[in-house]
Design a protein that fits this description.
It is built from 27 helices and 24 strands. By secondary structure, it is an alpha+beta fold. It folds into 4 domains: 208 residues, no CATH class; 180 residues, no CATH class; 222 residues, no CATH class; 164 residues, no CATH class. A hairpin with a 4-residue loop joins strand 20 and strand 21. Helix 2 packs antiparallel against helix 22, helix 14 packs antiparallel against helix 24 and helix 15 crosses helix 24. The protein is globular and about 95 Å long. About 1% of the residues have low confidence.
Length: 859
């Protein structure tokens, strides 16, 4: 009980210092719990949606996915004949049957040619209004569509784009462009997952989405009373055989959930990874806090030992303080995590995915995980300072002396750090020497871990040299104040090293990702300059195929010299070594593709691959399957026949663009694939006539003005788009890493604040002999800046090393250019100085307000 009282007294006596550490615990726990609540809520939302929208039994084409996704390379959804509907209506146990047609391979535009598709990545769905949809949606304005001239839109899409009854919209499909006026607006009675929904009647959906009548993408069955879904499924299979896909409501919901689980898992573990970084940074803050608090209570600890307290009791006292800190920070963090999850839901609603707080899901495991993690990390971080406190002898503590083993322990720590850093550097070297990415990634992971731990351990040793250099460059110009700031930073190298290490971790990740991202852009840009021989690239950013009518528009542009179509089709290959390789894509293009994309060959000429019944294979595939120039490969085309194609060229596998692709001609593909199964173009390449590049660029954009989903890019546009995509990804990652940076800043604030308390008497004496408040504040700010810059140097240097090693792995995939983004690196370094200034504001202000006489009288 005495130990507990002592711990409580000490905890409350330093509540300001503890608060900063508690904030670090709070932020880290909040990020973990917020991630778990957010992803659990998304899962609940989709569970409810899939359960509500699934019929008792659903019948669809064998070619359709289990989730009902209808995107295909033909641009049309897989369908089944209308006779299936007639047959299943007679099946025992069927109370009701309804045929539906819908497609996600569509683009919907308004009268001003504005794309109405969601920006969140959710699908755009055009389909027939049916009773299953009516269960989860309510018509709030107008009426359901009747006839070819009417369409109904969901309320969220209508609100977002300002659509109202009577407005005309158009949808673009592989069949053509079709227009209708809005007859009704329907709203979700459950949470809208973000899709844009447009409803027509069944004949209009058949005509505009498929181009046929009396076909359906699915048939929805309702079971008669007393008939289970599983029994109904068996009855249907007995009646129509195994030619179609038949799923119960549970199977449909499970498949849909499985489809989104992959995305949610990636997002969940990525966010938890950033939370882990924040926890790691927080550990340094907590270690520093307790190390300094223990050092400031050295005399008190000596008195406790002198009157009979054992080492265990002193140790236990410090750990109880850490436990209190962990519990308070974790409890607050759990609550903040729920708030963070709600905030994320609001953000998702702004970009189109409406997640209702009615579905807010807080599993019992979430607060448990938050509390256990927060408390465990805090107690473990405080263990070393607690153990150090327990080892102080009573006499040494009463003399206010440190532990005799400190210096020896520092050298041992430094030696271990040097060994680990050297081992990590060697692992990074082996990464650059690896022949396979899988092997190299293992060395890279090991190198990252070892160098990080090693630099943390040798941080105190490096502090002496690096801080002196920084002081000579930056602080000496401030005269005696600068020199005092330098000495203060050097006074306790371990503390300075730990504080800088917290900042180092976040900045190392920033630098590493900056190098990787910049190298990817530079490599792709170099590859584009070297390989692409066309002027313009036309494609959809979503990866969906190009409508055939749009391709005709491209071909009609008179200022173009040539137009090259590019398609992709799935095949199965019978290779000379007797192996059958399935699920491979073959790229079919016009013969001019060999000119538009200058692919390097190791054998043969790529132009020969576009001869009848010919193809090319990549070098690695040829080596793995014993293929040589002139070998024949049995190619089974999906939904087509099997043909024997002769290998006329073997291309290098060492390329970024179309890396590993197999090529053949569109004529060869058309020979073996029926016309109704021919894939649409994924990309169209166009080259202008000599001297007409600018005119052709304008003409192309004008010709495709009715197709806002298509992007017309010249090589400069394409490079900018690539840079923007990688830049957006990096900015998102930097935003998540900001949490670790914030925690590191709290660490600097805490270190300075505790350092000021530790030097109270010294500050009083300096003030007494003439140091002004302004000079005192400047000294503390300079100290903070030099610590921040020390951490930035370590982090940026380490991160660039990681990034350079990671680029060597990318080089195995064809991304050969190493590009150091110096503007970003320099900007981060300068920004670190401002971080130091910001972190010192409060400690410097409090130091300046000290009463001189009281400070001198402090023991």
């Amino acid at each position: 009980m005495t130990v507990l009282k002592t711990s409580m007294r000490n905890f409350l006596a330093h509540k300001g210092r503890m608060a900063l550490s508690a904030i670090a615990v709070l932020l880290s726990v909040a990020f973990v719990c917020g991630t778990l609540v957010f992803t659990d809520t998304m899962s609940t939302t989709f569970d409810k949606l899939f359960a509500a929208t699934a019929s008792d039994v659903t019948i669809s084409s064998k070619d359709s996915s289990n989730t009902g996704e209808t995107t295909s390379n033909t641009g049309k959804p897989p369908v089944m004949p209308g006779s299936v509907l007639s047959e299943v209506r007679k099946v025992e146990g069927v109370e009701d049957a309804e045929g539906t047609v819908f497609s996600t391979s569509v683009t919907v535009i308004d009268a001003e040619k504005k794309n109405l598709s969601p920006t969140s990545g959710a699908p755009t769905i055009v389909g027939s209004w049916n009773r299953t949809d009516a269960r989860t949606m309510e018509i709030t304005e107008g009426s359901a569509p009747k006839g070819a001239g009417q369409v109904m839109v969901d309320a969220d899409t209508a609100d977002k784009h300002g659509l109202k009854l009577g407005d005309e919209i158009r949808w673009i499909t592989a069949v053509g462009t079709h227009s209708a006026k809005i007859s009704g607006i329907t709203d979700f009675t459950i949470t809208n997952p973000g899709a844009a929904l447009f409803y027509t009647d069944v004949p209009t959906a058949q005509r505009t989405l498929v181009g046929e009548s009396d076909v359906y993408t699915s048939v929805n069955l309702t079971a008669a009373p007393g008939v289970s879904d599983e029994q109904l499924k068996q009855n249907v299979l007995a009646a129509i055989g195994g030619d179609y896909k038949v799923l119960t409501a549970k199977e449909t919901a499970d498949e849909n959930q499985k489809d989104v689980e992959g995305f949610m898992s990636v997002m969940k573990y990525a966010l938890l990874g950033f939370a882990g970084v924040a926890f790691l940074v927080g550990i340094f803050l907590i270690i520093n806090t307790f190390s300094m608090l223990v050092a400031q209570r050295t005399r008190e600890i000596g008195l406790m030992r002198a009157i009979g307290s054992s080492r265990k009791q002193v140790n236990r006292s410090v750990l109880i303080e850490a436990l209190l800190l962990g519990v308070i920070g974790s409890v607050l963090g759990v609550g903040a995590g729920v708030g963070l999850a709600i905030g994320l839901m609001k953000i998702m609603s702004q970009i189109g995915m409406d997640l209702s707080t009615r579905d807010l899901t807080i599993a019992w495991t979430t607060p448990v995980v938050g509390l256990v993690l927060g408390v465990l990390v805090t107690v473990l971080a405080a263990y070393l300072p607690a153990r150090r406190a327990g080892k102080i002898s009573p006499m040494a503590a009463l003399r206010d002396a440190g532990t005799p083993a400190d210096a020896k322990a520092g050298w041992i720590r430094g030696l271990i750090g040097l060994v680990l850093t050297g081992a990590g550097g060697f692992a990074l070297y082996l990464t650059s020497e690896a022949d396979k990415a899988s092997e190299g990634s293992l060395w890279l992971g090991l190198g990252v871990v070892l160098t990080l731990i090693g630099l943390v351990l040798i941080g105190p040793l490096l502090a002496g040299g690096v801080v002196r250099v920084l002081g000579a460059i930056l602080l000496r110009i401030f005269g005696p104040i600068g020199r005092m700031a330098e000495r203060n930073a050097l006074r306790n190298p371990r503390r300075t090293g730990a504080t800088a290490s917290a900042l180092m971790i976040g900045l190392a990740l920033v630098a590493c990702l900056s190098v990787v991202g910049s190298s990817m852009v530079a490599s792709a840009t170099e590859e584009l300059d070297k390989s692409v021989g066309t002027d313009f690239i036309v494609m959809q950013d979503t990866g969906q195929p190009i409508p055939p009518q749009a391709v005709e528009r491209v071909k009609s542009v008179s200022s173009l010299e040539r137009v090259t179509e590019y398609k992709v089709h799935e095949v199965a290959l019978g290779t000379p070594d007797g192996e059958r390789v399935t699920g491979k894509d073959i790229s079919a293009a016009d013969p001019t593709y060999a000119t538009d994309l200058r692919v390097e060959t190791v054998q043969g000429d790529l132009a020969d691959a576009y001869r009848p019944d010919s193809m090319s294979v990549p070098e690695k595939f040829a080596e793995d399957h014993g293929i040589r120039l002139g070998s024949t490969v049995d190619v089974a085309f999906d939904d087509g026949r099997t043909g024997e194609l002769t290998v006329r060229a073997i291309t290098t596998s060492d390329t970024v663009i179309d890396g590993g692709a197999m090529y053949t001609s569109i004529d060869t593909l058309a020979k073996y694939v029926p016309a109704d199964k021919m894939p649409l173009d994924l990309m169209v390449l166009a080259s202008a006539k000599d001297g007409q590049q600018e005119a052709a660029y304008k003409d192309l954009k004008a010709a495709l003005s009715d197709y806002p989903q298509l992007k017309v890019r010249d090589q400069t546009d394409y490079k900018e788009a690539l840079q923007d995509q990688i830049g957006q990804l990096l900015n998102m990652i930097y935003g998540l890493l900001a949490l670790a940076i914030i925690v590191a800043i709290l660490g600097v604030v805490n270190t300075l604040a505790l350092s000021v308390v530790e030097r109270t008497r010294e500050i009083g004496l300096m003030r007494a002999i003439g140091l002004s408040r302004r000079q005192l504040r400047r000294m503390i700010r300079m100290e903070s800046v030099v610590i921040a810059l020390f951490g930035a140097l370590l982090g940026l240097g380490l991160g660039m090393g990681w990034g350079a090693s990671a680029q060597q792995l990318l080089a195995l995939e064809g991304l050969k250019v190493l590009d150091i983004p110096w503007p970003t690196i320099i900007g981060v370094f300068i920004g670190s100085a401002f971080v130091g200034l910001f972190a010192a504001l409060v400690p410097a202000f409090r130091a300046g307000r000290m009463n001189v006489l009281n400070a001198i009288a402090t023991e």
